[in-house]
Write a structure and sequence with these properties.
single chain; alpha/beta; Leucine Aminopeptidase, subunit E, domain 1; Aminopeptidase; metal-binding; cytoplasm
Length: 553
Amino acid sequence: MAETTATAGGSPPDRVCQPQPHIFITKDGSLPVSEITSVPVTGHIPHASFTTEIPQGTDCLLVACFTGEDGLELAGTGLFDDEVDIEIWRQLVNVGATGAKEELTVVPGLEATGVPTVAAIGLGDSDDVEEDTLRRAAGVAARGLKGYASVATTIGAFGLGPAVEGFVLGGYHYPGYRKQDDSATAKKPVETVAFIHTVQAIAGETAPEKKQAKKAEKKAKEVFVRALINAEQVCFARDLVNTPPLDLYPASYAEIAKKAAKAEGLKVEVLDFEELKKKGFGGIVAVGQGSSRSPRLVRISYQPKKATTTVALVGKGITFDTGGISLKPGANMDAMTSDMAGSAAVVAAVVGAARLKLNVAVTATVPLAENMPGGSAQRPGDVIRHYGGVTSEVLNTDAEGRLVLADAIARACEDKPDYLIETATLTGAQLVALGTRTTGVMGSDDFRDRVAAHGRAVGETAWAMPIPEEVKKDVYSSDIADVRNIAKARWAGMQAAGAYLEKFVADGVEWTHLDVAGPAYNQDSPWGYSPKRATGCPVRTILATLADIADNG
């Protein structure tokens, strides 16, 4: 049996870790670097492998099925004689399987299959299987097969990359700080998943030339590795967002990001509170000064030698948002643990670009602050001076994300990038306009549309939105500063935030702003390959855009 395995850091043990003791910091936010290692609890993901046959000891074989004109259709596995596949089909029909999208049916395995259980995941009409149809189905299967330690699957025949992403992302399990249930009846997440390469699945022929088969297998392995890296980076972002704010605050977060970047040989710069004040990062300082846990600015650079195009990434890193003096209502404030999801996405993306060896230079600029209503907090009515000199009138301290992003965007543009991608859980108006699953994308027209298209292609639904001139005029109408941090009008709140950010983008830089207030954090039940809590959106959108820029400029 030929097997290729690819995971972050080689072949790790179970990624579920026990919580570490809480770390308390000094009054000025300082903390010995040696006390910070990584996120206290990491989510479990299935250990994925690429193989040519069913591994010994496999608990469950997962196959694909469809809705046909005359009933259930089973995809040929390429592993058994036709008689065996027909008998699997007959068992599925007998228990009422229809092949409907995301329908999971489990039946006993036949002696000829060599596995105790066979599961079939429905993909709907065989003529209408899109990449995200497969991705979602794989995610549903990964969740539904809890209790089976090892799974092997042939669903990659219909799209290996989406199948890998969907199963790994759907199999993600974040245990939190609960005591683990080690009882015999506890259904544990899938530990290992083997994606089976067959001649029929990869080469599309029953007996291809040996050379063609080897070439197809090599290409499939490359697809497998890319998809696995994409999924692992999404899970890294999820781990960051899922970490409670008691343990993830600017100082600890900066060290976690630094460690992850250094592991890939990336250059890292971290500015502390005093350096931020000295260098004029007025927005980050203003937002972070109300907390006893002082702000940071992290810069991570991936610089391949042959790259001719540069991309700046910026992500909002508010590790907890009370609203500051403009205090939020208490109901659902706990969800503000996710207000750093934009920063998690860009940290994961720049590290992912390095792991994927994309031929594009990428620098992530990540402002980190905790927005608290302390005695030294900024006040409504303050005017702050940002990095680069632009001033903001602060009319609502709960519109703080754009204040830290303004500094970061101005600093990122100082590097003269060709493109700038910025993302944030920025406005409740995004949810009002587009709901909980669709990212609002604003910015330079062509680049905005390009990024939105990549989002839709990878299953992170995105929609291009304009920034109307009248909205810009409203945001730029302060009597005492260059810009207001909220508009006068109630409407177009998402676009008003985009208009504010545009003020800090340098001329000539193609840019886009992704508002992921809803898509980055799922407060409802799991669906597809999206778990409850952190989703990891928009990591895959950013990585797809970076890959496109690397290939096409």
